[in-house]
Design a protein that fits this description.
Elements: H1 2-6, H2 15-34, H3 39-47, H4 51-84, H5 96-126, H6 131-147, H7 154-185, H8 190-221, H9 228-242, H10 252-260, H11 264-278, H12 284-318, H13 330-347, H14 371-378, H15 387-390, H16 396-399
Helix pairs in contact: 2-5, 2-11, 3-5, 4-5, 4-6, 5-6, 5-7, 5-11, 6-8, 7-8, 7-11, 9-10, 9-12
């Protein structure tokens, strides 16, 4: 199927377009499968459970959602790579069709899991004493206990920030699904919306308050400046801008979503399923309204992408990271520099030198750079810019650490510094949704 689109003599579609076609097929098949799932039966089945049991179920669903997101990203990556890999770099794998079927099964199961989560939240909203909703909101404050009093580095805080963004967006979609289902049950009576409004605001405010308190105390206890969030913003903006280049192999939203550990397919599938089942389309006027709504959403998406791209370019320019857009990936650059250093070390092109021995009888040839190494480091193959020092997040403890190599050297000891890590190099293609709790 996809091989014909990609490699029928010549490439008919770009890799990003092939991924979009695959997403379309997955959405169509999963939507046809979701039509057989009865939402009303699931609602009454969950409503018959006790409050404590529902609280435990909701916590289990949150953990399962993170595990599904991590495992599903690997499945989708395997599918996309298999469908778009070049001919000269083909690897041994099970094929496009089995990967496609596994992706369909994953998206369907993840959508069912999110549906159960939304149904549990709907039951909490419709309970008379609101006890379940109160217990679920108190679960957010337990999150403070699990994260505030632990050691955090700046890179771990970056992962937590991405996870919080993904979690808050998912909660907004779940609240939208709850409102749609309740409005359908009351025949779209606008008066009932004001009944739901206080509970929705209470859930959103509690989530925001917990995140603010959590990040405030984490930065306080770990002595992290608030300016680090500007670095996080610049890193996400760099991901979005770099994925819009002509040589990009993914859609512009994929790089940012994968950094946050967010997979939009199951959530979009569930939202489409709920909207189509809640809104009845009858008559030519209704179809015309749906068509206009679809065109409006496409227009809004285009405008949103333009605004995001322009804002991201401003952030990248303010961070002086423009030159990095034309550099090779950090992983490839570091591996090439290490390989050249390895060849210099074992090539023995420079004349051998006698090792220098200090007063303690320790050879310093292993710690003092040789002329060949100095020449290699003096002529790097990658252009350096101010952006190389912007997104580096060294810890103060690592900067002050002095290692004397068990020699007992005092005074002018040799300082061994831990190499600085770049935020763009950390977890670029891994799931960051695993919260550091």
């Amino acid at each position: 199927m996809c091989v014909c689109l990609c490699f029928s003599g010549s490439r008919l579609l770009q890799p990003a377009q092939v991924c979009d076609v695959l997403k379309g097929f997955i959405m169509v098949l999963c939507y046809s499968m979701m039509s057989y799932v009865d939402y009303s039966m699931m609602y009454h089945l969950i409503r018959g459970q006790s409050v404590i049991k529902l609280y435990i179920i909701y916590n289990m669903l949150e953990v399962a959602d993170r595990l599904f997101s991590s495992f599903g990203q690997d499945i989708l990556d395997a599918l996309y790579w298999t469908a778009t890999e070049p001919k000269e770099k083909k690897r041994a794998h099970i094929g496009v069709i089995p990967h496609f079927l596994m992706a369909v099964l994953y998206v369907f199961l993840h959508a069912i899991l999110i549906m159960v989560q939304a149904t549990t939240l709907n039951v909490a909203f419709n309970s008379h004493n609101k006890s379940l909703l109160t217990i679920m909101m108190s679960n957010n404050f337990v999150e403070i206990k699990g994260s505030v009093f632990k050691k955090f580095e700046k890179n771990n805080l970056f992962q937590m920030s991405n996870s919080d963004i993904k979690e808050r967006f998912t909660n907004y979609i779940l609240l939208l699904i709850v409102c749609l289902r309740n409005m359908e049950q009351f025949s779209w009576n606008p008066d009932h919306l004001w009944v739901l409004f206080p509970d929705v605001v209470m859930v959103i405010c509690s989530e925001v308050a917990v995140d603010v308190v959590k990040h405030a105390f984490i930065t306080k206890f770990n002595d992290i400046s608030a300016d680090v969030y500007g670095e996080y913003r610049a890193s996400l903006a760099f991901d979005l801008v770099s994925s819009r280049q002509k040589n990009a192999y993914t859609d512009y939203s994929d790089s940012v979503s994968r950094r946050m550990g967010f997979i939009p397919l199951p959530l979009a599938l569930l939202l489409i399923r709920v909207v189509t089942s809640s809104v009845k389309i009858q008559g030519s006027l209704s179809f015309m309204c749906v068509l206009l709504f679809y065109l409006g959403t496409i227009t809004l998406k285009v405008l949103n992408s333009i605004v995001l791209l322009g804002t991201s370019c401003v952030f990248v320019k303010e961070a002086n990271m423009e030159e990095k857009l034309f550099d090779p990936p950090p992983s490839a650059a570091s591996s090439r520099v290490n390989s050249r250093a390895h060849r210099t070390k074992h090539g023995s092109t420079a004349p051998p030198q006698e090792p220098t021995v200090d007063k303690a009888g320790i050879s310093l040839a292993s710690v003092i750079p040789q002329p060949a190494d100095v020449a290699e480091s003096a002529a790097p193959t990658i252009p350096k810019s101010d952006s190389d020092t912007f997104l580096t997040t060294p810890d103060e403890e690592e900067d002050d650490k002095i290692i004397n190599a068990d020699t007992g050297l005092e005074g002018d000891g040799l300082k061994h510094r831990t190499p600085k890590k770049d935020l763009l190099e950390i977890d670029r293609f891994t799931i960051c949704g695993n919260r550091i709790d």
